[in-house]
Design goal:
α1 runs parallel beside α2 and α6 runs parallel beside α8. By secondary structure, the protein is of the alpha/beta class. It is built from 12 helices and 8 strands. The protein has one domain: TIM Barrel (Alpha-Beta Barrel), CATH 3.20.20.70.
């Protein structure tokens, strides 16, 4: 599918903070990124909800170094000495098609010049990771501790492959976690709450089952990434057609309570997805009257791992959410097929043929 690519600023790099815990205390965690060529997977079609591959800038080592210096200095000026931060590119830090190896190494080398930094996390696709790459960055950063986040999204192959179009196998994720554990690098597994075509009830079930899988693989930290609508992707097209609604905030609470009840690992979970480096069209929401209270309670959870404030919320719209949970739907395969046919006929147009559909969706 040909994309109408948005313009994205190339300078300066940017950051925002997310509520977190660090060394047992609430922590405003800077999530900073430098500008690169963007996610190479996006340029081949990409994940259905994402648009982080929308620019085409060659990232030379000096440029990566200058951006890193600029953004860390800015964080320091505005927030003070922050010992733990995320240092990201637009897609995958270990993807040489997005950022050459020497540029990636320049980015991390520059970060070592700031003595107050004690922990750096980056993000990558699991299929871009190797023992040599991870060990090399870990040694370069030492004594700064190192972590890598990546999107598993769903342990259900049908959801991961046809609803998210992640382009990875489940074995890629489990192998990446095992590799990081061998090297004592903290793994951060991202799980997507409610991809396209997935019902509200299925989204909660899938978040729980995928969390269990991530814990079984040995994941040390898990991010429940609440799906939001951004422009220039498949999900946005479905949203515009009235064929996708972001999750209810009630579903986040339900998923967290079930994770706590069934895994006893609630302290390694964070919930994000309400901020982004690109425009968000629509985030998870309820009726609008209780949304702000929910968001404050989610911040409290991220700071403390305490669900009490979330569980104290009451609003009449909970009835509407429960009605959505009980809604009868066609099978997931039928829903995916119907959505793909809509996209084929209305987005691709005359060039579309049902032969383009995944074999699992053909009648």
């Amino acid at each position: 599918m040909k994309r109408d690519l948005p313009s994205v600023h190339q300078w300066p790099p940017d950051y925002f903070t997310i509520p977190d815990k660090f060394e047992g205390k609430p922590y405003d965690h800077p999530l900073a990124w430098i500008c690169t060529m963007g996610c190479s997977w996006y340029k081949t079609g990409g994940c259905t909800m994402c648009n982080f591959g929308s620019i085409d800038v060659k990232t030379i080592p000096d440029y990566a170094r200058d951006q890193t210096r600029e953004i860390i200095r800015r964080v320091h000026t505005e927030l003070g000495e922050k010992p733990n931060l995320d240092l990201l590119v637009l897609g995958s830090s270990f993807d040489t098609a997005e950022i050459p190896t020497e540029s990636m190494l320049a980015m991390f080398t520059e970060a070592t010049r700031f003595p107050w930094i004690r922990y750096i996390t980056t993000e990558a696709r699991p299929d871009h990771l190797s023992h040599a790459k991870l060990e090399g960055v870990k040694k370069l950063l030492y004594p700064i501790l190192f972590g890598v986040g990546f999107g598993l999204e769903s342990a259900n192959p049908l959801i991961r492959e046809l609803c998210v179009n992640k382009g990875i196998k489940e074995g890629d994720s489990s192998a990446a976690i095992q590799l990081m554990n061998q090297l004592d690098i903290q793994s951060q597994v991202h799980i997507l709450l409610k991809p396209i075509f997935v019902s509200e009830a299925e989204a909660i079930d899938d978040a729980l089952s995928t969390t269990k899988s991530a814990i079984l693989y040995g994941g040390r930290r898990i991010v429940l990434m609440v799906n939001s609508v951004k422009r220039h992707n498949v999900q946005h097209s479905l949203y515009q057609a009235g064929m996708y609604r972001p999750p209810w905030l009630w579903s986040i609470r339900e998923a967290l309570n079930r994770i706590k009840d069934e895994t006893a690992n609630i302290d390694i979970i964070n919930v994000y997805g309400f901020k982004s480096g690109v425009e968000i069209v629509r985030t998870a929401h309820n009726c609008g009257k209780c949304d702000e209270e929910f968001l404050f309670a989610l911040d409290h959870f991220n700071y403390t791992a305490d669900l009490s404030r979330l569980n104290d919320i009451s609003c009449p719209c909970e009835y509407d959410w429960r009605t959505a949970l009980e809604q009868k739907n066609d099978s997931l395969v039928k829903r995916i097929r119907a959505g793909c046919l809509y996209l084929g006929h209305n987005v691709i147009g005359d060039a579309f043929s049902e032969e383009m559909l995944d074999p699992r969706l053909r009648l």
